[in-house]
Amino acid sequence: MRPSVVLLRKRARIQQIVHTCPGTVNEEEQDAEVARIAAQPFARYTPDEKHLEALRERSDWNDPMRKFEEEQREAEGGAAGPGAGAAAARPPRPKCPHAPWPNRFNIPPGYRWDGKVRGSDFEKRWLQAKNGRELKKAEAYRWEQEMDQNS
């Protein structure tokens, strides 16, 4: 059985579309890249320039210098990557209008808090005990210094 002319034309058209679509790698480019990598020795002591450039372009989420680099790119006028405009367009987070009560971890209250503390006053007693201990230490130290000066 011989494939029909229409079927052959469809296959040729599909191949043409696949090879010309943006985002696809041409077979020649892919073969050239494979040949370039295959020509390198197996044990590489220094990475090649193309590999180093690819590493520089990659952005990891846990990179400590990422924020600095994004700020540099924004200062130069370039985009900082995907979603760069979303952070600038985000409105500021609302803050609670009431003064926060002191707590061990300095956690600010949520913006919907109505100002009434509904706890068991554990934090208050804990902070009072802590401050009492520190005050007692400071008073004992002052008393010792006073006694040393008198003798």
Automatic annotation (TrEMBL):
Coiled coil: none annotated. It comes from the Eukaryota. Residues 56-76 have a biased composition (Basic and acidic residues). Residues 56-110 are annotated as: Disordered. Pfam families: Bud13. InterPro entries: Bud13, CWC26_splicing_factor. Belongs to the CWC26 family. This is BUD13 homolog.
